[in-house]
Amino acid sequence: MSGLRLTPAPRSVYARRIAVGGGLAALLGTLLLGGSAAQASPPAPPSAATARTYLGQLTVKTEGSMDGYSREKFPHWSTQSGACNTREVVLKRDGSNVQQDSACAATSGSWYSEYDGATWTAASDVDIDHVIPLAQAWRSGANSWTTDRRKSFANDLTHSQLIAVTDNVNQAKGDKDPAQWMPPRAAYTCTYVRMWVGVKHTYGLTVDSAEKSKLQSLLNSC
To answer: Which of 23, 139, 155, 215 lies at a 20 to 30 A Cα distance from 79?
Structure first.
């Protein structure tokens, strides 16, 4: 294991996925390489009250099939600035004291995973989770989108769609919706469901009946 766990949390048996930051070698601006502390969290999701309203506006529909799906139909990670792609921008944003080299790879820092409460000191222990998984989006309406829209969705830094979390936890989530999986750290439940509903509402994605029921129940407790 390459990272140092400062806060104990259970590890799953899922295979480690080593994600290597990189890009074309280029000098980056002061903001990316050594600027002030970043936002340290995804953009704020809607309030619980607003999320309940949004949930009521979502179309309830049985999930579609996986026919034709591939991750390549959601191009990511896109270049955001200089040599930095979306993953590297989120690592910088969600981490603490993150230092990057001239290719934008994180060379040091720490990352607190809101999903499980673990802290990591190696970027290779951290995944960037799509809160609405790409395959889930495909089955909920993204199969009819243009590639450009799917690219925007997969690299969305404006809404609460991307977050840096423990890699094994992200892999355990897979493409499950909240009726099938929730972050193991209960303190993040309300934030997570607000994020989920906010993104689905923004993109006009559908929910199935079990998913909506679970979201309603969780939001009513927020």
So the answer is: 139
